[in-house]
Amino acid sequence: MSFIEQWLHDAVPALVGGEWRTGQTTFTVDNPATGDSIARVADIGADDARDAVAAAYDAGPAWRATPVKQRAALLRRWFELINAHADDLARLMTLEQGKPLAEAKGEVAYGASFIEFFAEEAKRMAGETLPSHGADKRLLVLREPVGVVAAITPWNFPLAMITRKCAPALAAGCTVVIKPAEATPLTALAAAYLALEAGLPAGTINVITASKPAEVGDVLTTDSRVRKVSFTGSTPVGKHLLAQCASTVKKTAMELGGNAPFIVFDDADVDAAVDGAIASKFRNAGQTCVCTNRFLVQDGIYDAFVAKLTERVNALNVGDGLTEGSVIGPLINQAAVDKVQRHVDDAQGKGARLMCGGKIHAAGERFYTPTVLADVTTQMAVTDEETFGPVAPVFRFKQDEEAIQMANDTPFGLAAYFYATDYRRIWRTMEQLEYGMVGVNEGLISTELAPFGGVKESGLGREGSHHGLDEFTELKYVCVGGL
Ligand code: NAD
């Protein structure tokens, strides 16, 4: 993509009202694998953020008045352009985020799938007529776009977290201001560039990049023209933004942190459970919100599971995401590496058995060796904190009730997984887990076709499926009287 090459040599602009703005100052984006700077990006402040909100607000009336088939056709074109540039986007994503190229390609396909889905789904966004309480009255329910949406996204899925919000918002007739994570703004900007190429009108999609997120965050959460804040990120930041949104009573969607349990019952197929464990725990080097944080394994199958898991984890290839064959890339920054090491040291210090890994990898200071810890107990930090790295801590339990109690004993409730074969146990467990998403004999559950989201402190709202479209619409009740 020539525009990306150009950007990487020059300063990367932000997108405000269809114009590429270089900004007064810039900040650097690093390649986490090497620590090298790969780009300088416009550092947007409060004034430019307000301009972006104004541009989105001004573009709103024409966009919502655009017939849905036309909006859908533009989104479809955006979907096609993302697919046509999949290799370049994936490479850019690996450069700024670190994930192996094959995973980055997978994310491009996954990210694009939301655009394809919502372009179609918007055509089915129907209102209602309701039975009336008076012979001379008719009751209608109209479904209208919310208005300007602020989308604030994390670094771990630089494309998919953006399309999962923007595709339904745009499809519903909303306009958007995106605030991507400061570590990974390039993929977001490239996606927005392709949206303009596809023909989305100026102002419908804006991208503001900032090294000081609070400054633009304050604008997005307090400006009364923004009607919805859709946030994906950590629970503490989500709580802060939620409080700020209260001042103008905005609609909010909060996709926050998790502490996913992965339960393996005695009757599980141990090989299938290990396959699921590898997929759920080690994708993106363990840096996904739905990735397993705690393995809870029943006594009778414990040793077999730990042995097989350790064998598989030992064989995972660590290296630069651009190197052929790498399956575990770097962690995003030094703080992430330090947190992982702290969790491993804490567990070992309190009696956990290190089965493999446990240290920084020879590939570089940001690479952590995939790790398995056995005999982990609830006194250890991994019980309550999201590790966000390639560490598999394995707890032991005896009775089913004990596993359910441990699984639910957390303020979080995003994703949970379990492996079992007895159908009664499957139904019971599925119903007892206090989570927004449950994988049963399955470690990878994300799809644009299903509602993604959590309960408790993991968040509010759902993304994906027709529920994801509802999040960007308001219901307007109309009573037509005097008939
Ligand atoms: P983070 O909360 O630090 O940052 C997320 C975004 O918020 C970034 O764009 C950041 O710049 C911005 N931000 C931070 N402070 C802000 C402020 N005061 N005002 C406005 N914006 C602000 O999270 P992260 O480290 O980027 O991502 C990792 C976290 O995200 C993990 O906890 C993970 O579980 C969670 N996550 C959740 C989901 C989900 O769907 N539930 C998906 C991916 C990641």
Describe this structure in words.
There is one protein chain. Helices cover 41% and strands 22% of the residues. It contains 15 helices and 21 strands. The protein has helices spanning 2-9, 46-65, 68-84, 86-97, 101-121, 160-172, 185-198, 213-222, 235-245, 270-282, 299-314, 334-349, 400-408, 423-432, 465-470, and strands at 11-12, 14-16, 19-21, 25-30, 37-43, 128-130, 138-145, 148-152, 175-179, 205-207, 226-232, 251-255, 260-264, 292-298, 353-356, 371-376, 391-397, 415-419, 437-440, 459-460, 473-480. It has a 7-stranded mixed sheet, sandwiched between helices. The protein has a 6-stranded mixed sheet with strand order 10-9-8-11-12-20, with helices on both faces. Helix 2 (46-65) crosses helix 8 (213-222), helix 3 (68-84) packs antiparallel against helix 5 (101-121) and helix 3 (68-84) packs across helix 7. The model has no long low-confidence stretch (mean pLDDT 97). Residues 152-157, 179, 181-182, 213-214, 217, 232-234, 237, 240-241, 255-258, 289, 386, 414, 454, 459 line the site of nicotinamide-adenine-dinucleotide.
Please write out the topology.
Elements lengths: L1 H8 L1 E2 L1 E3 L2 E3 L3 E6 L6 E7 L2 H20 L2 H17 L1 H12 L3 H21 L6 E3 L7 E8 L2 E5 L7 H13 L2 E5 L5 H14 L6 E3 L5 H10 L3 E7 L2 H11 L5 E5 L4 E5 L5 H13 L9 E7 H16 L19 H16 L3 E4 L14 E6 L14 E7 L2 H9 L6 E5 L3 H10 L4 E4 L18 E2 L4 H6 L2 E8 L3
Helix pairs in contact: 2-8, 3-5, 3-6, 3-7, 4-5, 4-7, 5-6, 8-9, 10-11
The protein binds nicotinamide-adenine-dinucleotide.
